Amino acid sequence: MANEEDDPIIQEIDVFLARSLLEKLYLFQYPIRPASMTYDDVTHLSAKIKPKQQKVELEMAIDTLNPNYCRSKGEQIALNVDGTCTDETSTYSSKLMDKQTFCSSQAASNVSRYAAAVYKKGELHLTPLHGILQLRPSFTYLDKADAKHREREAANEGGDSSQDEAEDDVKQITVRFSRPETEQARQRRVQSYEFLQKRQAEEHWVHLHYYGLKDSRSEHERQYLFSQGHGLAENTELIKSPSEYLMMLMPPSVEEENDKPMAPSNVLSMAQLRTLPLADQIKILMKNVKVMPFANLMSLLGSGTDPTAVLRCVQQVALLVQGNWVVKSDVLYPKDTSSPHSGVPAEVLCRGRDFVMWKFTQDRWVVRKEVAAVTKLCPEDVKDFLEHMSVARINKGWEFMLPYDEDFVKKHPDIVQRQQMLWMGIQAKLEKVYNLLKEHMTPKKQEAQSAHPLLVSGEQRVNMAKAKVKQNYGQLEKEFQKQKAEMKSNDSSAKTDVPNIRIKEEPVSLEEPMDTSAHNEGLNNGLVNGLHPAQGSTDPVNGHLPGGCIDRVAQELKAFVSSTFKKQFVLTLSELKRLFNLHLASLPPGHTLFSGISDKMLQDMVLDTGCKQILVPFPPQTAASPDELKVYALWEAGDTYDQHRQVLLEIFSKNYRVRRNVIQNQLSQECGEDLNKQEVDRVLKVSFCSLW
């Protein structure tokens, strides 16, 4: 009491809350300006703002006539930024740094505790602030000067480079197709720094008009700082009860609030859940749990909940499967949504999940391959369906995760009958959509449902494999003896016709038969060591061919080589053998070329058809195979490019790598005509299409 008497109340002031400029009033904090940074009249000022980000840029004119202003420095800055040319895009049109830009940043994240106050005639009028912004000088003009400097350097360097060097700087581009974005990936991308920067850059600037202190518009706007009505009805914010006023004076500390564990935004506590209506409680529980017995649902809803009301609500968001409630598909996949895995729309996902649920009404077990074959959905979507309501079992399939609830079925036969009617309607729709067969409609036998999965130990597997190997070995031994007897009979018949047998001139020890399966084993179509098992009279005997067969083989081989080199004028031996393998794969069984063609026969035939071997001087450290180092070319094809092709082959016989301008000059000298770049490219493409 003594302290109160020593500090008497001198004056009582009425406080009013002005709301006219609510969410429009900002406080700007300018930096302390040095004496050399004085500004002209405020009519030279321009401003712009991004309202969502509360970001402001102000442009103020600098007093260049002030004695503290360094004119030479201002001219140097303007020259560095704009260069010698001045146009509309120039930052400083007067060739002098005559303005300064200020950029804002938020001084406080929570400005609800701050207000602008005006005192007039014994009344204090408060207007809440919408933002407090600190203005700092912006030096973007320096970035612009650096960018122009780099452009000039790049232009100088680019002028010295030649066209040939530019052609060597070819880079490989990898094309990738984006996969469907999952919800988790989308959330991470939205919360990333790059995405936020992009969103901020996309917001457009709103240009503002500046009015001076003594302008009539400023005088008019300043009147909004005063409360427009002094009635108590419009200032109810200042009328609080003692407890509310005490809470405003002493709010709970931030540390106590931070100590409480923060739950995810999509998770509700049981206390929060029970504040919602009953239908919303059931929908949230079923959406999160997905499969639940009725007894568990009643225990989660708390004591005193009416079971009849729960049954009425649960039928709106769930279906009965084996006495348990499973959430409906349209609750998990709302309209206008899609699969995070494949991008399939929600309607298709709902049909596929309904098929899985219907299968579990018929059987305890479901096979994922069968579901995928019927629904035509990707494996990830089908796996999600099954994980919602079942558990994977080894060597069996997917089993419904909850046991059959006989208690609920006995207590509520009317609900069970109503659900059976719903499933009959769903089954009819599924039959039309998926064209279900009888094997999909009929449930499996009860014995198969109750059977336990067969478990086989590792030792049993090994014993079974050994027994299978012994059985197969016996069959293979019988077939081998049979083939051996047939070979002996063929040898005896062949000896009686010795005069008709001709021996190859090339020695077997020097050249091996060509491996027709070196490049692509799948091209043989049943070939065994390059020969057809169904081959008959043209089979070689001990590596030798019948007399009339060699001429037919030579003719067929020559026809193949001639046609191949007329299409592709230059080929390596490796590429020629690959094309020959493809040719063999297209021939019928028993063809003469299946008699066995060696590398030497193939190379001799290439030389006989008018081709020449080009001795390209490859480097010694090359990683190419010997067949890839042997290059053959058709010397005369009878077309207009024969002379050009011969010149090119002579060039490449001296060096394996030649610049394009050298080729162009050599062709012009030898052929007596000036060829441009397009014509040279055409000659190279026609001559070396198989190598480049």
Q: What key phrases describe this protein's structure?
A:
692 residues, RPC5 polymerase, 29 helices, alpha+beta, RPC5_C, RNA_pol_III_Rpc5, three-stranded mixed sheet
Description:
- Residues 444-690 form the DNA-directed RNA polymerase III subunit RPC5 C-terminal domain.
- Residues 146-169 are annotated as: Disordered.
- Pfam families: RPC5 (PF04801), RPC5_C (PF19725).
- The protein is α+β, with helices and mostly antiparallel strands and 692 residues long.
- Among the domains are: 12-62 and 98-150 and 195-228; 270-434, no CATH class; 548-688, no CATH class.
- 46% of the residues lie in helices and 12% in strands.
- The protein contains 29 helices and 20 strands.
- A hairpin with a 2-residue loop joins β6 (115-120) and β7 (123-128).
- The radius of gyration is 45 Å and the shape is flat.
- The model is unreliable at 39-43, 162-166, 255-265, 445-455, 494-513 and 515-544 (pLDDT under 50).
